[in-house]
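Record 1 of the preview.
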Amino acid sequence: MMKKKIIPGFLAAALTVSGLFVVPAVSVEAAEDSHPVRLIDYAELLDDTEYTELESKLDRISEEYDCDVAVITEDSIDGEDEVAYADDFFDYNDYGMGEDKSGVLFLITMSERKWCISTHGAAIDIFTDRGQEYISGEIKPSLSAGDYYEAFDTFADLCEQFIIQAESGEPYDVDNMPEESMSSAVWIPVSLGIGLVISLIITGVMRGQMKSVRRKPDAADYMQKDSLHITRKNDLFLYHQISRSAKPKNEDSGGGSSTHTSSSGETHGGSSGSF
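->
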């Protein structure tokens, strides 16, 4: 597990340029092939086994699909904007693969309880706005529950799924999203359906045992003769029913990815939120 705190490259570079003191810019530790480490656990949320397994998965996905997939945890970013921080972390530490420096970086900050996804290069089109909304929805429950390994592992798996889908020419977007997994949204109706079938079977068996009961052809057959005398009849208006239809919202469903420019002048996509 990486426990040594390293000054982000963009911060060190800024200090160097400012002339406050002269030190070589310190960047994220790199692997033997000089590529920056794809899993940096500054907040120390993972144990050694979890770190090793997750780092191996991130490296495999990144190298197999030529698209960096990185996870960064921070104790605090001292009140900085999480989007700007994630973008600069990506840019100044030289993440990204291929000519367009394709990659996606996931950042969480513990003090601020913020998460952020930053995309660059081809990854901007791979991870559309709707796609990022889907990914964050899948991992936020684990983040909120403190199950950080599960959240990061799910993020890595979804990134691989999204990259594979994009290679087909149709990246996940508004009208083309992954099929829902068998979550509570599916299991609850299934369970209710099974319960209904069982209750119908039991009711049928009990009804078959009531041999003394026979259906009468007319309502009057259920009454004793001369037991009811109607002296007055009135028609009462009890209620009326009004049906309303919701007016469709005029929303833009064009999909795609929104972008912005980082402090280094690079174009990024991304999203952020709290957990």
